[in-house]
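Form 7-S
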Amino acid sequence: MGSQLITPLLSSPFPWVALCGLFFGAALSRATRGTRRARHPERAATRKWVLACLLLSVALACGLLAIFPPPHFEFQRSTIADTRWAWIAGAAAAVAFLALRFRRAAGIPVVVLVVALVAAVGLFFRGVRAYTGEREIATIRVISLGPSTMRLELSARGEPPVLLSMKGTQFATIVRVVIFRDLPVFLGARTWYRFIGLTSFDDNLRQQDTDFRFPNPPGISDALWKWVESHEKSLPFLKTAQTEMTLKRKAETTELTTYNVMIQNDGGVEVAPAQ
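Output:
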């Protein structure tokens, strides 16, 4: 997951432009630093210019990566004519220059800004994980499939495996979900669920009478579900509370196939073959 989040970020030209500005500001700070008061002024001047040139080289490399990205980064390239490049590079260079050149005057405010930026980036990554994440809550294995019956093995999280004999040729999961609004999700809230059990259908999508229901369904308690459901419209952080029934059709259901039951953080329930 980490690589899936970091790679798209680095494949954009703007982080490279920001790094270019930061290293350029650091090089400018080093180049404008005096050496007269040093114990050995000539040596200090030599070290100053060597380090300034090194920082400037890194800045140039980052700028080239923004213009000519690595082959494995595929994205629509921006151009130097994009005015956002100048704003981003200029702001980054100013921050780096002030923080390093005037450490006492600007160091503390810059540190505060950097801490705020790191916190914002952390919230961003957490929000991305929340929006794109999913959780496996159960697995279903099709042991045998007849003309009008099927045998399944259901393994729910926190529950022992259960062998089921059900009428029909298609099964469906019954899951109650509590879906939160965007802000709680961005802050890390995950969809609540209550896995009720399985039902089945025949080829004509007629529901059969061999449903399986957990005695104590995994997930949130029944009391909490009923309270949330009854206060659905009055809770500002809640988007909806609903029952999801995900059907696996006959054409997709084959013997000795294992399916994962996944809860998406946007509230959807997916039943997909195990990888």
